[in-house]
Design goal:
The chain is of the alpha+beta class and about 400 residues long. It has three domains: about 5-110, no CATH class; about 135-260, Helix Hairpins, CATH 1.10.287; about 265-405, Jelly Rolls (Sandwich), CATH 2.60.120.10. About 65% of the residues lie in helices and about 10% in strands. The chain is built from 14 helices and ten strands. The strands form three sheets. It has a four-stranded antiparallel sheet with strand order 3-10-5-8. It has a four-stranded antiparallel sheet with strand order 4-9-6-7, with no helix packed on it. Strands 1-2 form a two-stranded antiparallel ribbon. β6 (about 315-320) and β7 (about 325-330) form a beta hairpin. The radius of gyration is 39 Å and the shape is elongated.
């Protein structure tokens, strides 16, 4: 690919970018937002993360095939600005006229500036995440190398310890045999002459010497055991640090993964998930089902048995008891959680019907059993917080009704 090539967005691309549910997402969307009809391929490549830069040519090819961008050469742009200075031997490319380029540029400038700013922020964040990930991987490799060295040292000390243990055992067995032999010899020679008494003294001295040697060997063995304990503690510390780095790496990867999710921004802004970290939200969205409901559709039927609860992402839904609407749900409100909390009576207490086109997350409590404890705790805290708000609102309504009755 020629790095001096300049691309410009088509009206089709501008329409797709303005559509929140368009088919463009991820790296293609970020790259398309950087195409402004003025910046060449080389300059755009410097603004994107290394992972995107590696597949830059492939992404441009896909965008060109989808007719989201068209190519405008540097020579064509120069000719459009100064047609009288064009050399005789330079041919003007016939790919796109100057008028069409200007029209497309004018249309591109009407895009939401916040969208451009968001793309730049996400690109910078992704570059930071990739740099952090590279540093974490480097630290993991260093710690793994140190762990391997500690493992080798521990194995060597363990081998020495086993050898010394075998030697002590053999020596102890031989010493016990000699002690028994000396004791038998002493018993046989008691009450004999001075020569026999001297031999007895010599045997006792030999026995004391063997006892001293045995105690020294025991002390050496205890020192070796302390050395092995130190190596094992060092290994446990290194393994703990490796696990912490792996958890950090997993959080970075989860943070990057959840930002790539097509519905991340819609879910992130909801009050229900305000205490969730990105890693928590990424794991929850693996277990939850995304559903899109048309106006008039019934999501929950009164009297039906089901424990699934929902979080409304967009639109409005009515809570209907019998034939009367008792509440209107707004984005961020959960519903259906009563049946999931009261497993002894999982019948739906009311129906929920979509007033407008809606999007929602469906969460089955049984699926959350496979999630981490922190995820289940975040969900429980959010449900308790919402129930407390609803209870406070109900108490205020009851007090207001009682006050009206008293006035009458």
């Amino acid at each position: 690919m020629n790095e001096a090539t300049i691309y410009v967005r088509t009206n089709l691309a501008n329409t797709e970018l303005q559509n929140p549910k368009g088919s463009i997402a991820g790296d293609e969307k970020r790259l398309l937002l950087l195409v402004d009809g003025k910046t060449n391929v080389e300059a755009i490549g410097k603004k994107v993360p290394p992972s995107v830069r590696a597949q830059l040519e492939e992404v441009f090819k896909r965008l060109t095939q989808a007719k989201f961008i068209v190519e405008v050469s540097a020579t064509s742009a120069a000719v459009s600005k100064a047609p009288d200075a064009t050399p005789a031997n330079v041919k003007t490319p016939a790919r796109i006229s100057h008028v069409e380029v200007q029209n497309i540029l004018n249309t591109s400038q009407k895009l939401n500036k916040n969208m451009m700013l968001l793309a730049e922020v996400e690109i910078e964040r992704r570059m930071e995440l990739e740099q952090d990930l590279a540093e974490v991987n480097s630290k993991c490799e260093t710690l793994q190398s140190r762990l391997n060295e500690a493992e080798a040292q521990k194995n060597a000390i363990s081998d020495q310890y086993e050898t010394l243990k075998q030697q002590v055992l053999v020596y102890k067995q031989g010493m016990q045999s000699k002690v028994l032999a000396l004791q038998a010899h002493i018993q046989q020679n008691q009450g004999v002459s001075q020569d026999s008494q001297a031999q007895r003294s010599k045997a006792e001295a030999d026995l004391n010497k063997m006892r001293d040697d045995f105690e020294r060997l025991q002390a050496d063995m205890a020192a070796k055991e302390l050395s092995v304990d130190k190596v094992l503690k060092l290994r446990m510390q290194e393994e703990k640090r490796v696990e912490e780095l792996k958890r950090t790496q997993s959080k970075i990867e989860a943070d990057e993964m959840v930002r790539e999710h097509p519905h991340y921004h819609e879910v992130r802004r909801l009050d229900f998930f305000k205490d969730f970290r990105n890693s928590d939200l990424a794991q929850l969205m693996v277990w939850a089902d995304w559903r899109e409901i048309k106006a008039g559709e019934t999501v929950v039927v009164e009297g039906e048995q089901d424990v699934t609860f929902f979080v409304l992402v967009s639109g409005k839904m009515a809570v209907v008891k019998g034939k009367r609407t008792i509440h209107v749900l707004m984005p961020g409100d959960p519903f259906g959680e009563i049946a999931s909390l009261d497993l002894d009576n999982s019948l739906r207490s009311a129906s929920v019907i979509a007033r407008t086109d809606c999007a929602l997350l469906a969460i089955n409590p049984a699926h959350l059993d496979g999630a981490e404890v922190i995820i289940r705790m975040r969900v429980s805290e959010a449900l308790v917080r919402i129930q407390a708000k609803r209870l406070r609102r109900a108490i205020d309504m009851v007090e207001s009704l009682l006050a009206d009755d008293a006035d009458k």
